[in-house]
Design a protein that fits this description.
There is one protein chain. The protein is of the alpha+beta class and about 130 residues long. It has a single domain, classed as Alpha-Beta Complex (Aspartate Aminotransferase, domain 1), CATH 3.90.1150. About 35% of the residues lie in helices and about 25% in strands. A five-stranded antiparallel sheet has the order 1-2-3-4-5. A hairpin with a 3-residue loop joins β2 and β3. The longest helix is centred in the last third of the chain and has 24 residues. The termini are far apart.
Length: about 130
């Protein structure tokens, strides 16, 4: 399945929002790889050093941009929502909700966080 197939059954305004987010994601993290996740009905992003770090989840009248470790990201404007153990998301209902600079920074911070976590876990000695 492709990202386009994930979006195929959505209304044009939702598809347009998703396309804008997709462009923004790849501008913020050009080395990231985009993939369709049909089980989640999402478009996910993986980074070579950080692994999976975020995804676009389309709904009938909005999108959610989930960050895998959003709970640990700097969010000075308190835009991230959710109260799970680790994920947080932005709700995107219109083009006005796409704050490119803010989202780009969240993407970069998310990759840095996951990359640092991966490096740290590889450096830890095995437990006895």
């Amino acid at each position: 399945m492709t990202p386009e197939q994930i979006l195929a059954d959505h209304i044009p305004p939702i598809v347009a929002l998703a396309q804008r987010l997709r462009q923004l994601m790849l501008q913020a993290a050009p080395e990231a790889r985009e993939a369709a996740y049909p089980g989640w009905h999402a478009i996910g992003y993986r980074h070579p050093q950080a692994g999976y770090f975020c995804g676009i989840f389309p709904y009938a009248d909005h999108l959610k941009l989930y960050f895998e470790y959003g709970k640990f990201l700097p969010d000075p404007e308190h835009r991230l929502q959710g109260d799970g153990r680790q994920t947080r998301y932005l709700v995107i209902e219109s083009p006005e909700n796409i704050h490119a600079g803010y989202i780009s920074q969240l993407v970069k911070d998310s990759i840095a966080l996951k990359s640092d976590t991966a490096r740290t876990s590889k450096q830890r000695p095995a437990s006895m």
